[in-house]
Structures
1.
Amino acid sequence: AQSVTQPDIHITVSEGASLELRCNYSYGATPYLFWYVQSPGQGLQLLLKYFSGDTLVQGIKGFEAEFKRSQSSFNLRKPSVHWSDAAEYFCAVGAGAAGNKLTFGGGTRVLVKP
Amino acid sequence: DAGVIQSPRHEVTEMGQEVTLRCKPISGHDYLFWYRQTMMRGLELLIYFNNNVPIDDSGMPEDRFSAKMPNASFSTLKIQPSEPRDSAVYFCASSSSGTALYGYTFGSGTRLTVV
């Protein structure tokens, strides 16, 4: 069965600083990988996804993620954080038919200091 | 497109009462998922449907939980009887077959409080 680990429960970053969120997955085949963001009181919004091709993928809101098969990782990055990026971020791996069954990591809560 | 619509947004009920959560997926999406989110357990997949048929309900915690999808535009998640430990945010999401690339579209969730 697939699994996702997000080692960092909380991260605090200063506005304007760079951000990197870690994600490690376990899956027997080529994975579909996703990052979602959840703002307080809201549902989850898709930031970006990877399924094949270029291992560096660009998403919305200036985020990018890099797939590293050798490390089973799919880390999320943003060069310069804005206060509006304060939220909880979830990494997910897709399995099943067309990767439609998603398994989520435990999430990383990002706090942005002024 | 109105997105995935869940109702109610908030529900407070007394222990032992029946609770019904509702979801309207995006038109044309043929996968529908119910997730539960708690502080302790994070996001858990409860059940998912494909073309209105339940495919995997292994995440449904107990017989007190049941889900139906009578047609392509409506699904319910029912808890009977409800217990305080069922308090959580319940999300519905939908997806189009073959387009896992786009992930899911989530509803805004139903926050359930059982007192």
Note: The mean pLDDT of chain A is 91.
2.
Amino acid sequence: DQQVKQNSPSLSVQEGRISILNCDYTNSMFDYFLWYKKYPAEGPTFLISISSIKDKNEDGRFTVFLNKSAKHLSLHIVPSQPGDSAVYFCAARTQGGSEKLVFGKGTKLTVNP
Amino acid sequence: SQTIHQWPATLVQPVGSPLSLECTVEGTSNPNLYWYRQAAGRGLQLLFYSVGIGQISSEVPQNLSASRPQDRQFILSSKKLLLSDSGFYLCAWSRDKKNIQYFGAGTRLSVL
């Protein structure tokens, strides 16, 4: 049972345009969501997060939106840069401070110059 | 500042040989520690996690085991590797209630 789903395995955008990465979840007990960025042959790095009590969190070029009723979150990157090309993972934490995160399978973003 | 060390970076092992991957964290105490595997073209699969010395939780039955002999040391082991154990192994730690996890650089394991 895949509780966190990233249905697009890949996304290609032009430099300077907006990148929108999507994530859907099924478990209504998730209360905290995170995005990670991963380059090949490296460990994922934490990018941005959002609590379930908010619907938007912004950090520079990165904004995460949460729609609880739809059980959907998205990561917007504006403007996209070639260095943003990586695999992006969505992750979620269960309410109550679970020690575990549930990860999606990732979306590979390619930003073309 | 906190850092996480994971080694070796790459490893090629024959089928049936033992495995020991080590992960250490510096600059924090009593972290939660995690072992993940990323198989080719797939997401991050949680293998083991630990909330304290000697406390290991296993997420999937498999050919691997984990140990935490010291507060900031986490070891992934196998007595006999299988071909299916090939993959990219990642160690991670967390310390806050938000459970933001910080990852090591990973070990690329090829079992031949």
Note: The mean pLDDT of chain A is 94.
